[in-house]
Amino acid sequence: MQLSTVVNGTRVDLDIAPDARLIDVLRNALSLTGTKEGCAEGECGACTVLIDGVAVNACLVLAAQVQGKSVMTVEGLASAGQPNALQRKFVELGAIQCGFCTPGMLMSATALLACNSKPSHDEIRRALAGNLCRCTGYAAIIEAVAAAADAAGSAK
Amino acid sequence: MNRPELLAPRDLAALASALSRATPDSRLIAGGTDLMPRLRTSGVRPDLLIDLSGLRELAFIRRECGLVRIGAMTTFAQMQRDAMLAIDANCLSSAAAHVGSAQIRNAATIGGNVANASPCADAMPALLVLGAEVGVLNRTGKVQRRALRDLLAEAGKTTLAADEAIVDFSFVPLSADHRSAFGKVGARSSVAVAELNAAMIVKLDGTRRTITQARIAFGSIAPTAFVDDRVAAALSDKPVNDATIESFSQACSNMVSRSIPDRSSLPYKRHAIRGLAYDLWSAIQGAPDP
Question: Under CATH, domain A85-155 is a member of which superfamily?
Answer without folding.
Answer: [2Fe-2S]-binding domain (1.10.150.120)
